[in-house]
Amino acid sequence: MSSKFADDTKANFDYAFVETIARIAVYDDLRSAPRVIEIQPATTAEFIENLASKIYEQAKLAGGTIPYTVIREVSENFIHAQFAEIIVSILDQGKTIRFSDQGPGIAHKEKAQLPGFSSAIEPMKRYIRGVGSGLPIVKDYLDFSNGTITIEDNLESGSVVTVSLTPPANDRHQPTIEPLTPPLSAREKEFLPYFLHEGALGVTDLVNLTGIAQSSTYVTLKKLEEYGLIEKTVGQKRILTDIGYQVASSL
After folding, report:
1. Structural domain of residue 243, as residue ranges?
2. What total of structural domains would you count in the chain?
3. Is residue 154 in a domain?
4. Are 78 and 38 members of one domain?
5. What pLDDT, in 10s, does the model give residues 9-28?
6. Phi and psi for 160 in degrees, rounded to 5?
7. Can you give the pLDDT at residue 177?
8. Distances from the Cα of 215 to the Cα of 56, 98, 185, 236, 243, angstroms
């Protein structure tokens, strides 16, 4: 494919809507087939939100500690591959996440991890920052936290980005401390399991799921935020915090 043709194809792609299905493969171990979760086509902002929150949820449930911000930054990077054949593998009890696609690939893998190097074009910048900060943010966080990021070529085309984060050895055998559950109302207890099973949710999502009025739903979400059980994502939806996962799982 000539550079001119590739540039034209890239510029003419409809970045407003993702028409492909992303697949998340959750490996309990490598001796059995993974559980596969599909992220359905949606508007670009919604698709990235759904993908990142579901990866975060499943990695957390498996026992991983990779933060949402890291997962979100790498998930946004799929826009450069025009969301072609996305497969995300959750391995090693959630401590390793592998993001793969069949896009054009990343030619300069080292530069992609440095601030300011970017291949983002204007249509992409409606959905991502597009200033070459995504992978550098991920690398900086993982370097500081003794984690790793690797970028490799996929088998035929595309890229594979693998992030790993293992707790320090002296933290692995610490006794589990049960979180102090705040004095939750019946409605607050009703809301938490939805986040556990659905992932990121907004006010409208919860209104549709519960049938509770929007004003009451908003008040309940604010209370759960004050308790530190949920937090806002980049897309203004809410997801469970680490403590929130523990509390929701205990209900």
Report:
1. 186-250
2. 2
3. yes
4. yes
5. 677 899 999 999 999 999 99
6. -130, 120
7. 53
8. 28, 40, 16, 16, 25
